[in-house]
Design brief:
The structure is a single chain. This protein has 294 residues and is an alpha/beta fold. The protein folds into two domains: 15-55 and 188-292, Vaccinia Virus protein VP39 (Rossmann fold, 3-Layer(aba) Sandwich); 61-176, Adenine-specific Methyltransferase, domain 2, CATH 1.10.1020. Helix content is 36%, strand content 15%. Strands 1, 2, 3, 4, 5, 6, 7 and 8 form an eight-stranded mixed β-sheet that branches. The two termini are 24 Å apart.
């Protein structure tokens, strides 16, 4: 399995072995409706064509940058930014060079340089450079998170890690595989994505009853949830296969309408992946599921 070059909230990497067996052996166009980390798209090699969609435009711009630049050049550009903003480079220098350790992390050392980099990114007018600087920010951000405030400014605090060997390896592996499938990139509302008979939709939307970072400000509403179900019903009637990831129950909440809707399709329970995400909880039952029309 190929992991994403991003540590994305809600990534399905750790449960791909449960999801991928439900996918057909072939399809005309694979549509990743809520693309996120890209791990599902990149690990499904059986489509003739790929559409990768996400409403987060800076994220799609970053994927386009990765798709059109060699990973070696990306590494060189990031290393240049690291020097420019006087950030750590433990891949080349190690932790002891900075008087730090892996356990303590690098946040205190990088705090000033990271703040300068974040301010620079948020004031950057040259949009062609924004994806590169966004990637640099993500690499040094807390838990490599991607989050923007209501003004569109990146607002994640500094993290404990830098552009280390693990992140460089992820970039190399992901980038090479991504460029081979070369998806069509879109940043649109899911309602505007029009599938055709013979296509396969994978939908991993924000979960209505969780408080993940991508939904903490009500970015996904009850109306969105209902209209996604209607969208998938229409796709089903048009001969389009779909696979939906979602949760029926979480932290004492139930999405009863989703449960009722899914009863007309095939439902498979998934081993919970929340222990690797921001909304981990030891209180209350969580039931993560996959709904398919095949």
């Amino acid at each position: 399995m190929i992991n994403s070059f991003l540590n994305y909230t809600g990534s399905k990497y750790r449960i791909l072995d449960q999801i991928l067996p439900a996918f057909p052996d072939k399809c005309r166009t694979f549509i990743d409706l809520f693309g996120g980390s890209g791990v599902v798209t990149i690990n499904y090699p059986h489509a003739q064509n790929y559409v990768f969609n996400d409403i987060n435009k800076p994220l799609i711009d970053l994927f386009e940058y990765i798709q059109t630049n060699s990973p070696n050049n990306v590494e060189l550009e990031i290393d240049s930014i690291i020097r420019e903003f006087e950030l750590t480079n433990t891949f080349k220098m190690g932790y002891t060079f900075y008087g730090a350790s892996s356990k303590e992390g690098l946040a205190n050392i990088n705090r000033i340089g990271y703040s300068r980099l974040r301010n620079y990114y948020n004031s950057l007018i040259d949009t062609s450079q924004k994806p590169l600087y966004l990637y640099a920010l993500i690499l040094f951000a807390f838990n490599n998170q991607i989050r923007f405030n209501s003004h569109g400014d990146f607002n994640v605090p500094v993290g404990k890690r830098d552009f280390n060997k693990n992140m460089r390896t992820k970039l190399q592996n992901f980038s090479k595989a991504w460029q081979k499938i070369s998806p069509q990139l879109k940043s649109e509302d899911f309602r505007n994505i029009k599938p055709s008979s013979g296509d396969l939709i994978y939908a991993d939307p924000p979960y209505l009853i969780t408080t993940a970072a991508y939904n903490e400000n009500g970015g996904w509403t009850d109306k969105d949830d209902l209209e996604l179900m209607q969208y998938l019903d229409k796709a089903n009637q048009s001969g389009v296969a779909f696979i939906l990831s979602n949760v029926f129950e979480h932290k004492g909440k139930r999405n009863q309408r989703l449960i009722d809707w899914a009863s007309q399709y095939r439902v498979t329970d998934l081993s919970n992946s929340f222990n690797n995400s921001n909304y981990h909880t030891n209180r209350g039952k969580s039931r993560e599921v996959m709904v398919t029309n095949q």
